[in-house]
Every structure is written in structure tokens, then in C-alpha cells.
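Hypothesis: this fold can be encoded by more than one sequence.
Test: take the C-alpha cells below, design a sequence, compare later.
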């Protein structure tokens, strides 16, 4: 839709013909635009929709503008037809014809009266209240139609853009939501029982409400382009949709984690039972070893061995029950906690066994040292030396008797080492003093 030249002096015949040709081209362009607007899919949808909010208000104004546009176009068509008829009276237009044509083509010769003026007052920002009619020049009328057309098309295109973009995306997300809900329900992720189940319910409510709002009030979800005057300049506002899509993705990841628990729950439970069983066996071995240490080692303190923690067994039984009831969302965090606790319990049992058997390890080390020195002096032909035989027998009696006093036995081994070193002419003689292992009851 174009514009016309400003007013000027009386037109000559050539100027009239050029003006009529230009107005004819404008008339054709305006008619094409109005017919395209009339057939626009967005306009047809707006006519049949139950609108609310800002869209309802703007569509009421836009409908009035479109009606007014056709009224203006009819007036424009009539003025153009009249001008063509005047020009067609004579091949060479008279002075009176040219004056009349100039007034018609450049003056305020087009009058919109009656019901159309009421529409002007409602829809047009320039409409004056209480005016019975309004007059336009053809140029002003074209400008007015351009203005109304732009605002009407902008509204129609914006609504159509939102309807074309958001409902389909919401429907796809809703379909994915339903699949996720069915999967979640199958693994026990339900509202009120798991946060992900609550999230699914909230997303469902939000998407349902969002779709209703988008369908009834699309312009509430339209963001106009800054600085753009072109009709339909802007984009659909997908903020709420995008937020819910991200929330659904987070729920899907949570459900995938729960599914992973379901798939390997039995193996993890078997491993847990094995860990706790090994810890129990180790503690039982430590208790048995403690009795042996108390019987075989004298003058030493042996740490008490505690029993297996019943709380872990109770939690393991709870985990097995969760698995039987397919409560995967509860089983997942419990398994993670139990796995760490079971590893810690096995480590504690091993440390307890090590602490309890430390005196036996010290005795074994002393026995090995004594035999190693005996083998060394034997290689040098000194095994029958009376002093070495005497000290060896004394140390051996202490180490192989029960209960064994580790403090006294270590002193005997050191005396044997010293005698052997002197006979062998060794420059390195172990320093004689207190037991190298404390009171014999220390941990290895």
C-alpha cells in the first residue's frame, strides 16, 4: 500500500492521467492486501476463537479496523471511479473538468459518514467523538488505510505466530510428559512419595494451564521486536515452556537413575550381604584370635572385639523389602548409604583383627629373627658354641612357651644376637635396652 503526491496547482491533462494511473495501481495494491488479510489463517482463527485478556481487547479493535478499512476502500474506489468518469467525458478535458479533477484528486473530496464514523471513533486513534462525518483527501485516505492495515496485520500475524509455535510444542512436551509419568509410575515414583512425582504433577498442571492461556490469549505470549515497525515484528514468548521443558529433563534424569537402581539392585544387595558377611567373619576371627592371644601371650593388653552392628543388618533387610515392593526411589539412596557403611564396617573389622593379633605377629617376628641368627652362626661353624647354645635355648623356651612374656623373650633374643655378633667379629652389635615393640601388646 503506497502514498500520493501532496496538493498543488490545477493539474493538466498529462498530470491527471499520470495521477489516475498511479491511483489505479494503488487501488489494485490496496485491494490485494485487504483480500490477503481477509484470507489470512490467523484472522480466520481469531474469528472462531474464544478469546480472553489482551487478545480479546485487541481483536475487538482490529475487527473494527478491518471493517473500517473496507469502508475506506469502498470510498476510495468510488472517488477513483468518479475521477475516471470525469476524465472519460472528453478526449481533451476542459478547464472545468481539470479543476474538478484536481479538487477530486488532491482535495478533501472523500467523505465517510454515518455508521462508519462511529467505527472510526472506536477503532481509530484520530477519530473524534461526536463527529457526524469525516473528510479525507485521497492521499490522506491512503495513509489512513496504511496505518489501519499495519496495526491490523501486526495483531493478526502476532497471534498466528504464537498459535503456530507454542501449542504444537506444548503438545509434544505433554506427550513426552505422559510417557515419563507412565514410566515413573511403573518404578514407584508417584506424587506424595517422591519429589520427582510431585514435579511431574506440577509440570502437568502448568502445561495444561499454559496451553489454555496460549489458545485463548496468544498476544499475552508475544514479545514485540524492539525498534521494529514492520507488522508481526517480534517472537513468541517461550519462557514458561522452556522452564517446564528443563524441569521435565531433570525429572527424566532422576528416573533414569532410579531405573539404574532397579536394573542392578539385586547385584548390589548381594555385594552388600557379602561385605557384611566378610566383616562378621573377620570380627569372629578377631574374637577367636583374642582368646588365643590371651592364652599364649602374657603381660599384654588385648583390645576388646565388638560385635557386628545390628543397625546395618536391619537397614539391609529394609533395602531388600524396598526391592520386593519395587520402591526404587527409596531403595536408591538407602543402597548408596549402605554401601559406604558396609565398606567402613569391613575396614573396622580388619583393623580390629590386626590390633588383636599384633602380639602374635611380634612373637612370630622374634621367632623368625632367632632362627635366622642361628642359621647364620651355623654357616660359620659356631652352632655348637656353649654360650650360643645356652642363650638360644633360653630364648627358644620363652618364645615357644605359653603364656609368652614378649618383653622378657625379646631381651633373650637380643642377648643371643649380641653373643653371635661378638663371635662373628661383627662391628654392628644391636643396642641392648628395652623391648623394641613396647609392652608386647602394641598393634602391628
Amino acid at each position: 500500500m503506497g502514498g500520493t503526491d501532496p496538493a498543488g496547482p490545477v493539474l493538466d491533462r498529462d498530470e491527471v492521467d499520470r495521477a489516475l494511473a498511479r491511483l489505479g495501481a494503488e487501488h489494485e495494491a490496496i485491494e490485494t492486501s485487504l483480500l490477503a488479510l481477509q484470507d489470512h489463517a490467523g484472522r480466520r482463527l481469531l474469528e472462531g476463537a474464544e478469546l480472553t485478556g489482551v487478545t480479546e481487547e485487541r481483536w475487538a479493535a482490529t475487527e473494527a479496523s478491518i471493517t473500517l478499512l473496507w469502508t475506506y476502500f469502498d470510498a476510495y474506489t468510488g472517488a477513483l471511479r468518479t475521477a475516471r468518469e470525469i476524465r472519460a467525458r472528453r478526449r481533451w478535458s476542459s478547464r472545468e473538468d481539470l479543476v474538478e479533477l484536481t479538487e477530486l484528486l488532491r482535495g478533501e473530496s472523500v467523505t465517510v459518514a454515518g455508521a462508519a464514523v462511529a467505527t472510526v471513533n472506536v477503532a481509530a486513534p484520530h477519530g473524534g467523538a461526536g463527529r457526524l462525518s469525516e473528510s479525507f483527501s485521497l492521499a490522506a485516505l491512503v495513509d489512513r488505510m496504511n496505518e489501519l492495515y499495519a496495526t491490523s496485520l501486526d495483531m493478526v500475524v502476532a497471534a498466528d505466530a504464537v498459535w503456530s509455535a507454542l501449542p504444537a510444542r506444548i503438545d509434544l512436551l505433554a506427550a513426552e510428559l505422559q510417557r515419563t509419568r507412565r514410566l515413573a509410575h511403573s518404578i514407584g515414583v508417584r506424587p506424595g512419595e517422591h519429589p520427582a512425582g510431585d514435579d511431574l504433577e506440577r509440570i502437568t498442571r502448568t502445561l495444561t494451564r499454559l496451553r489454555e492461556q496460549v489458545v485463548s490469549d496468544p498476544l499475552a505470549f508475544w514479545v514485540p521486536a524492539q525498534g521494529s515497525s514492520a507488522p508481526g515484528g517480534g517472537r513468541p514468548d517461550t519462557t514458561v515452556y522452556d522452564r517446564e521443558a528443563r524441569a521435565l529433563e531433570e525429572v527424566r534424569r532422576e528416573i533414569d537413575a532410579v531405573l539404574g537402581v532397579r536394573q542392578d539392585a539385586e547385584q548390589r544387595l548381594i555385594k552388600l550381604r557379602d561385605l557384611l558377611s566378610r566383616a562378621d567373619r573377620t570380627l569372629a576371627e578377631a574374637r577367636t584370635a583374642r582368646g588365643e592371644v590371651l592364652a599364649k601371650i602374657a603381660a599384654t593388653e588385648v583390645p576388646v572385639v565388638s560385635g557386628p552392628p545390628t543397625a546395618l543388618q536391619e537397614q539391609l533387610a529394609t533395602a531388600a523389602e524396598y526391592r520386593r515392593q519395587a520402591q526404587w526411589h527409596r531403595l536408591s539412596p538407602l543402597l548408596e548409604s549402605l554401601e559406604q557403611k558396609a565398606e567402613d564396617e569391613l575396614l573396622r573389622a580388619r583393623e580390629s583383627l590386626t590390633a588383636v593379633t599384633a602380639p602374635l605377629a611380634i612373637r612370630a617376628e622374634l621367632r623368625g629373627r632367632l632362627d635366622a641368627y642361628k642359621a647364620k652362626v651355623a654357616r660359620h661353624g659356631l652352632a655348637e658354641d656353649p654360650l650360643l647354645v645356652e642363650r638360644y635355648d633360653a630364648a627358644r623356651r620363652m618364645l615357644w612357651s605359653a603364656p609368652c612374656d614378649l618383653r622378657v623373650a625379646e631381651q633373650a633374643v637380643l642377648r643371643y644376637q649380641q653373643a653371635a655378633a661378638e663371635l662373628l667379629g661383627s662391628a654392628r652389635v644391636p643396642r641392648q635396652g628395652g623391648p623394641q615393640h613396647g609392652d608386647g601388646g602394641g598393634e602391628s
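The first helix runs from residue 13 to 39. Confidence is low (pLDDT under 50) at residues 2-7, 122-130, 426-444.
Hypothesis status: open.
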